Amino acid sequence: MLDETNVKSMSIIVTKGTLDWAYPPFILATTAAAMGLNVTMFFTFYGLGLLKKDLNLKVSTLGNPAMEMPMGGMHMAMPNIMAALPGASALTSAMMKNMIKKKGVASIEELRDLAIEADVNMIACQMTMDLFEYKPQDMIPGLTIGGAATWVEAATKCDINLYI
Amino acid sequence: MADQVLDAKGLNCPLPILRTKKMLKDMPTGATLEVLATDPGAVKDFEAFCRTTGNELVEHHVDGKVYVFTIRHSG
What we know:
Chain A is of the alpha/beta class. Chain A has helices at residues 19-34, 80-83, 88-102, 108-117, 126-131, 148-156, and strands at 9-14, 38-43, 68-71, 74-77, 121-125, 144-146, 160-163. Helix content of chain B is 31%, strand content 35%.
């Protein structure tokens, strides 16, 4: 067993709240925690929405020409002009969620639960809470509410600091 | 024969690792866990997981499309 002084640690600043961007921080946080690291996640701006009790995450191909969906053995990208149409984002999100299920990829809700279970320290940005008018009762319990200084203090002690 | 078996077939990264960690946590030191996975990335990942956590990767092999790992809980 590693003693307390040898424990590695990681912090992640989570700034984006779409379905696709929600994956990297939660995958890395849960995996690092499983590998024995102390993990801190700081949720700010659009990333803060990932801490809401009810998640209904969406993905958009708008302004994202690199996004291709596998389709009948090929890959399809959606032109921006179509991605901007009403319902396009809902359609793309439904396709993505379907793909996620079929390929045995965890849902964000599942990864978030696993992160909580693994004692990942989650900090909700106070300024963003005020800015977007989120109430503490809209968010999952057990969060630390803090600001930049809270993250900076945590980050000075971390071996890995990521901004996603 | 391993003491316990974890069927992680069909699961994608990082679930096989997360489920493995969860099972190892409740197993006594020295006990062995056999993990079955179909994620090809699992090979590199289980090596890295074991090196970092100090658990022993006793053996791993491929059985058809299934990757089989034997891990001794020592981390």
